[in-house]
Write a structure and sequence with these properties.
By secondary structure, the protein is an all-alpha fold. Helices cover 83% and strands 0% of the residues. The protein has one helix spanning 8-46. It is rod-shaped. This is 30S ribosomal protein S10. It comes from Pseudolactococcus laudensis. Residues 1-22 are annotated as: Disordered.
Length: 47
């Protein structure tokens, strides 16, 4: 277990915080995939 022990209210707030951060990382991954697709299309268009 961790250094600090949280009560029920504290555990819920930590869980909400982690859920929000995970959502952001998924958005970043999607943007990177879209950017890679765009660059590939752009490269193939010039050739």
């Amino acid at each position: 277990m961790g250094k600090y022990q949280l009560d029920n209210k504290g555990q819920q707030s930590v869980q909400k915080f982690h859920e929000k951060n995970i959502g952001k990382s998924d958005k970043q991954l999607k943007l990177e995939a879209i950017k890679a697709q765009y660059l590939n299309k752009k490269k193939s268009g010039k050739k």
